[in-house]
Amino acid sequence: MLKEMGRTSLAVLVxxxxxxxxxxxxxxxxxxxxxxxxxGGTLILTCNTTGCASPSFSWRTQMDSPLGxxxxxxxxxxxxxxxxxxxxxxxxxxxxxxCDDREKKEKSIEVELYSFPSDPVIEISxxxxxxxxxxxxxxxxxxxxxxxLEVLLKKDxxxxxxxxxxxxxxxxxxxxxxxxxxHPTAKDIGKEITCVARLLIADMDFEPKERTSSxxxxxxxxxxxxxxxxxxxxxxxxxxxxxLTCVTQSNPPAKIVWSKYLAEESxxxxxxxxxxxxxxxHFNDSGRYIxxxxxxxxxxxxxxAMDIIIQGAPVITKLSIEPSTTVQEGENVSIQxxxxxNPPPKIxxxxxxxxxxxxxxxxxNILLPSVMxxxxxxxxxxxxxxxxxxxxxITLNVKYGPKNTMITVIPTxxxxxxxxxxxxxxxxxxxxxxxxxxxxxxxxxxxKISKNATLTIWNLQSQDLGLYECEAYNQFGKEEKAVKxxxxxxxxxxxxxxxxxxxxxxxAVVVPxxxxxxxxxxxxxxxxxxxxxxxxxxxx
Length: 540
Prior knowledge:
The termini are far apart. The protein is mainly β. The protein folds into six domains: 26-114, Immunoglobulin-like (Sandwich); 121-216, Immunoglobulin-like, CATH 2.60.40.10; 221-308, Immunoglobulins (Immunoglobulin-like, Sandwich); 312-397, Sandwich (Immunoglobulin-like), CATH 2.60.40.10; 400-487, Immunoglobulins (Immunoglobulin-like), CATH 2.60.40; 500-539. The protein has helices spanning 2-21, 496-526, 532-539, and strands spanning 26-30, 34-38, 43-50, 55-61, 70-73, 77-82, 92-99, 103-114, 121-125, 134-143, 149-155, 158-164, 174-182, 192-199, 210-216, 221-231, 242-251, 255-261, 267-269, 275-278, 287-295, 300-308, 312-322, 326-328, 333-342, 346-351, 360-362, 365-368, 377-385, 388-410, 414-415, 421-430, 434-440, 446-450, 454-457, 466-474, 477-487. 11% of the residues lie in helices and 51% in strands.
């Protein structure tokens, strides 16, 4: 009996030891059971587990309100991210974990919110004049919860005014305003008005809980002694960064309005800042700049002006061909070039050619009335001053119909049967002409035989003899040339051409001889003799 009891006790002891080695299921919620978050910031709540292989997470508010955040579940933990934090996140959040569908645990965290993002803003108006009433305004931006806000207005260490918002029931961030009027004395000039704002929330850990701003009580004046400072100077190089700074004496600080004179005395308004910065100045930035300093409290203004002259190498602003860079032969064409720089540039507009010496047509403008195809090509504009030069090019494209159409026959127009003859037709034009070949039939009609510029006849036969016509064509016109093929011994060439040549040769001899005879006859008549021999002797 005792042995059995001993065995049972040993078994129980073993089981207890095994159970102690298995880690128990636990959970925790971070950062703590209570946390403070800044409205507009980011808050991450984390629910961690230990001792559970497959936990299941869920989040909710104890009032079953919307979470107002994003839940992300991982193997052993879950996060609730609120970004940005807003008023709807002011809750007690509950994380529930179920371990392996058996054991369930819950923990909660209280999220408390506040907003106290910046120092107070002090405004003193109207103009501070000794003996007259002045108003001090202190603004505390975006405060929450405002019923914990306390504001003090102090002059040096003396408290002028105190206000709290303990009864404020605002449910969102608000800008709170505290206003106080007083009568300053001459002794107050130079003293400081301080606004102290305190957000007193017990047991809430955040910093700062107190914010202050100060402003001196100064007599208002100005603006006066207004000047413009230019960096690197009032004659910067083109491409530099120009900074114009308006310096003036004024209390409160003057508002600055920049302007620039344009043509006909009109004014272009620029930025409202005491520094006018122009990166990479251009020549058209030259001109008179005006700085106007305005003190709205004293209702006084003062102006300063400076002339700015941008210097530098020329920049070609225009290189154009009118009416277009592509024209038809016979149109009127104008080529213009303009550039800007300081000092003014010398401009040469000329046509480029293969020759080393390129003649300038004119400065700035070239007029081509009834343009010819030879006028086409590249034109360049060159602008130069003491700081450098600039060059730009443009191409004039002249369209024209076929010209200078020629036929080349290889080996010759007089051939032998069985030979190979090649006829090549060339023509100039823009766009390049389309070339085709036709052959005259016995009935006088023409038959198209090829659309290539080169026509080759292999093993020439009698039926290949005749008149061949080459036609060059584009949309601006066409031009035709012809050649007659004949075979030696079978067909004689057209006798018209030889007859013309023979007649021309005879005429070249006869016409001068007849002229001489007429001249000699007239001389003989003048001398009273009609003897041709005598007349010739007299001439000699």
